[in-house]
Amino acid sequence: MTSGAAPPPRLGKVPLLRRLNLFEEMGEEEVQAISRQLAMSHCVSGQGIYAGNQDRVYLLKSGRVRLYRLSANGADVTTAILVPGQLFGTVSFLGGSAGGDHADALEDSYICEASAPDFLGIMARHPMLMAKVMMAMARQLFRLERTVEQLVHGSVEDRLAGLLVSQMDAAEELDGEILLPAQTRDELASMVMSTRETVSRTLAKWGREGVVELRGRRVVVLDPASLRHRAGGEI
């Protein structure tokens, strides 16, 4: 990954790390030690982070990153929109490579990275971090399996509901409402293999039914139980 020219971050590396769930229960010395082993880079909007084979693990500290794959006909299919605190490139933990995977910054972003062996060494020295990373990877795998199942058997509504439910963990809660990360209708459509028009119609329908509310690029979940039901149960 090539770093873009960046202004000094508003927060240094350690304060940024402490804001992430992976590190919130760690002591100051532990976070300081980990921060010294991670390289922090700045990516401008639209900049590629990796394409194809790579053996590094990344942690998004601020901004948003899009993961996608190229189909046989050259079209790109979005597989995830990442928000701060999420890891990617974790297939390299298993000795694999990203293959046809690509990652681009959707907006100005700060990213920490390390080689897979170095990151495994960090986790070995910090059992709490290892436990959290393993749990995060398990959730990602479970959601991927559900996504594949919905792509094969589900309707667009099933897939969209499943996607929004999967994003609720990284959402903001405000006065009983769940504010999902900002994303365009095109991004949502790409992730559920549909069209912008169909996604917009579905969200508008759910808005009339009181399940969600649309505020610009933010989808606000008003009725989580109903959304989970539309996704086919808990995700």
CA-based shape? globular
Helix-strand string:
HHEEEEEEEEHHHEEHHEEH
The CATH topology of the largest domain comes to Jelly Rolls
Top-tier CATH class of the largest domain: Mainly Beta
CATH architecture of the largest domain: Sandwich
Q: Provide the β-strand percentage band.
A: 15-25%
Structural class: alpha+beta
Which segments are poorly predicted (pLDDT under 50) over 5 or more consecutive residues?
A: 2-8
- In CATH, the homologous superfamily of the largest domain goes by the name Jelly Rolls
Q: Looking across the biggest beta sheet, what order are the strands in?
A: 1-8-3-6
Please bin the fraction of helical residues.
25-40%
Mean pLDDT: 81
Backbone CA Rg: 18 Å
Distance between the termini: 33 Å
Number of helices: 8
Number of discrete domains? 2
| Number of separate strands | 12
- What's the story with the biggest beta sheet? 4 strands, antiparallel
How would you characterize the overall build of this protein?
This protein has helices at 13-18, 28-35, 116-125, 127-153, 156-166, 185-191, 196-208, 224-230, and strands at 39-43, 48-51, 56-62, 65-70, 76-82, 87-88, 101-105, 109-115, 172-174, 177-179, 212-215, 218-221. The chain is of the alpha+beta class and 235 residues long. It folds into 2 domains: 13-140, Jelly Rolls (Sandwich), CATH 2.60.120.10; 154-230, Winged helix-like DNA-binding domain superfamily/Winged helix DNA-binding domain (Arc Repressor Mutant, subunit A, Orthogonal Bundle). A 4-stranded antiparallel β-sheet has the order 1-8-3-6. It has a 4-stranded antiparallel β-sheet with strand order 2-7-4-5. A 4-stranded antiparallel β-sheet has the order 9-10-12-11. A hairpin with a 2-residue loop joins strand 11 (212-215) and strand 12. Helix 5 packs across helix 8 (224-230). The longest helix is centred in the middle third of the chain and has 27 residues, at 127-153. The radius of gyration is 18 Å and the shape is globular. The two termini are 33 Å apart. 30% of the residues are buried.
